[in-house]
Write a structure and sequence with these properties.
The chain contains one helix and no strands. The protein is mostly helical. It has one domain. It is rod-shaped.
Length: about 80
């Protein structure tokens, strides 16, 4: 095999490698896009859940405060 044929073979291998890597990059980019969208959706749901949990905790705190006030009133009456 002469030098020119070896060079051609190396170039062909490099081109094939570049094609495989390009395709792999495309697949990974698409997957990355899907994962980013999924992450964004999960983050939105988490934000909503945290807000709802905070509101629920506040309602419970308020209700407990009213119950304790009533208990305090009952203790004063007794």
């Amino acid at each position: 095999m002469d030098t020119l044929e070896k060079l051609e073979e190396k170039i062909n291998k490099a081109v094939a490698l570049i094609e495989r890597l390009t395709e792999k990059n495309k697949v990974l980019s698409e997957e990355n896009g899907r994962l980013k969208a999924s992450l964004s959706e999960v983050e939105s749901k988490l934000t909503i859940a945290e807000k709802e949990e905070g509101e629920k905790a506040e309602r419970i705190k308020d209700k407990l405060g009213r119950i304790l006030d009533k208990l305090g009133t009952l203790e004063q009456i007794s």
